[in-house]
Amino acid sequence: MSVAQAAEAEPSAAALFNEHCAVCHGEGRLGGTGPALIPETLGRMYGPKLEKVIAEGRPATQMAGFSDQLTAEQIAAISRYVETPLAEVPRWSVEMANESLELNPDYKPAKAPVFTADPMNITLVVETGDHHVSVLDGDTFEVLDRFATPFAVHGGPKFSPDGHYVFIMSRDGWVQKYDIWSLQVVGQVRAGLNSRNIAMSHDGRWLAVANYLPRTLTILSTEDLSVVTVRDVVARDGTPSRVSAVYQAPQRESFVLALKDAPEIWEIATSPNAGPFHDGFVHSHEQSMEEQLGAEEGLFARRRILIDEPLDDFFFSPDYRNLIGANRDGDKGVVVNLDVGRAISELPLPGMPHLGSGISWERNGSRVMATPHLKEGVLSVIDMKDWSLVRQIKTMGPGFFLRSHENSPYVWADVFFGPNKDKMHVIDKQSLEIVKTLDPAPGKTVAHVEFTKDGSYALVSIWEDDGAVIVYDAKTLEEVKRLPMRKPSGKYNVWNKITFDDGTSH
Ligand code: DHE
Questions:
Q1: Helix (H), strand (E) at residue 39
Q2: What Pfam families does the record point to (predicted)?
Q3: Phi and psi of 491, rounded to 5°?
């Protein structure tokens, strides 16, 4: 069908949508009880895949099949309609966000954990197959609770610094608060319409939500999920920008934002005396007056760092003084020193590095970091003193995630893409040699690793709807247990996350 024909067909598609879909997915396609149906949220769900869901529904969800009510042409028309970008970026103000707050009426806070398991060794498993999270006892691997999340959770859940609460975000902007001690959902609020990820402030008081739609950063109070501020993200030249991601920089007492549509990095203070905005942190006065212009003061003050081109997908040095970001072409890494507020080095990283999955460790007396590449079967290992490339480790295909633990001699690297997606490499941190390649579920995607608190076990996902989490002895590399799970994706151990353990990407 031509564009003109599609446009002509649109009114009837819109009418069909309003008649059959809007009751759950919202009149403006922005979501309701069902997820938002806009290209930004649908991602790779388009064409025949989307038509199949409309026709047949989704098992174990509220999504019913419509093949008995709609013809194949009508289903195709609805599919094309929801694939069309919205004509106008909708508003999502502080008031609108606050109105969306839903609290669990049955929630009862607990003064201490209601279970005997070590609360610091709890591991959460995000099960994207049926939009749930399983709460695992990290010693016995018993499932203590399993709760429903909003649709399509993405990115790492963020724990409060004491490990008592966790916050989980969905691609259509809902942020859910869960009380680990009482094993209960506290509530949820819609912080954006299409969101990327969340970050926790150093003191656990604020949660930042990076949004694509609208082009804003939302800041929530972690205490009651109220929306404190929605900040428009507009570059110095007036261009509104999507926020690729927001990161927590606890030592700096700030959030760091990657702007997708502008050559700027933003730093937002999470305390009135935040590092970047007082003398102690800005060691050098290399940042010009012009660059400093626009720096603000107080809580949530913003500082702009000007760079040559937009960068995203950041890896941070453990002291949060430097970050490496990837350029749009995915062929180089740019090192930005956050203290002086400018790029200080570049390194060649062809094949789309996935720096957000990077991890670092000590090797031969100096610190190295490693990153997988989404388009090349290699891991790049970089010396963090002079930002030189130490080694490219050849893998059986491009990978997505890396993980280690301070007590483990190994890095675990998946091979997410291609015919070897069922393999998992285990690499010696000192020799940088692959010591073993695991093949626990031939033909299935095997990905993402998390360790238990002391690093003695490694948990690996079989990333399929009838998948599992495999527990490995992290020393012998032998399988200990297999826990059936619905498309388990990321796994997050309370202790490793709140202590920013060496082997975990932040
Ligand atoms: Fe992710 C983390 C961006 C596609 C699963 N992903 C992140 C983070 C960012 C990011 C910025 C860090 C956020 C954080 O944890 O605070 N992801 C992107 C993309 O730009 C990309 C390539 C395209 C997109 O659709 O947005 C992308 N991501 C995916 C997937 O297709 C994955 C495999 C399946 C899914 O659930 O969508 C996926 N991303 C994940 C997971 C994490 C993540 C499981 C958290 C990893 C961790 O261990 O912390």
A1: helix 39-42
A2: Cytochrom_D1, Cytochrome_CBB3
A3: -130, 140
Query: Quick check: helix, strand or coil at residue 14?
Result: helix
Distance between Cα 153 and ligand 1 center (Å): 9
**Interval between CA 236 and ligand 1 midpoint (Å):** 28
DSSP 3-state of 438: strand
Amino acid at 269: A
* Closest Cα to atom 40 of ligand 1: 155
- C-alpha to C-alpha distances, 188 to 92, 148, 167, 222, 359, nearest whole angstrom: 16, 12, 9, 11, 31
The values of phi and psi at residue 488, to 5°, are: -70, 130
Average pLDDT over residues 182-201: 96
Residue 282: predicted pLDDT: 45
pLDDT in tens, 290-323: 455 456 778 999 999 999 999 999 999 999 999 9
pLDDT tens digit sequence for 48-73:
999 999 999 987 677 889 999 999 99
> Which strands sit side by side in the sheet containing 410-414, from one edge to the other?
402-403, 410-414, 424-428, 434-438
What is the whole-number distance in angstroms between the Cα of residue 154 and the centre of ligand 1?
Answer: 6
Q: Which residues contact 57 (CB under 8 A, 6 or more apart)?
A: 63, 64, 65, 66
Chain length of the chain: 506
Q: Which residues line ligand 1 (CB under 6 A)?
A: 43, 128, 154-156, 196-197, 245, 356, 400-401, 448, 489-490, 505
The residue whose C-alpha atom lies closest to atom 9 belonging to ligand 1 is 155
**Residue nearest to ligand 1 atom 23, measured at CA:** 43
- ipTM score assigned to the predicted complex: 0.97
| β-strand pairing of 302-306 with 434-438 | unpaired
Pocket test for ligand 1, best of 42, 131, 154, 213 (most atoms within 8 A of CB): 154
* Nearest atom in ligand 1 to 156's CA: 15
Domain over 3-82 is classified CATH 3.40.120.10: no
Query: What does the alpha-carbon distance between residue 243 and residue 372 come to, in Å, rounded to a whole number?
Result: 23
Please tell me the distance from the alpha carbon of residue 433 to that of residue 403, in angstroms, as a whole number.
16
pLDDT digit string (tens) for 443-462?
999 999 999 999 999 999 99
Instruction: Please state the atom number of ligand 1 nearest to the C-alpha of residue 44.
Output: 25
User: How many angstroms does the Cα of residue 336 sit away from the middle of ligand 1?
Assistant: 22
Tell me how far the alpha carbon of residue 37 lies from the centroid of ligand 1, in angstroms. 19
**Domain spans of the chain, in order of start:** 3-82
Return the higher-pLDDT residue of 350 and 273: 350
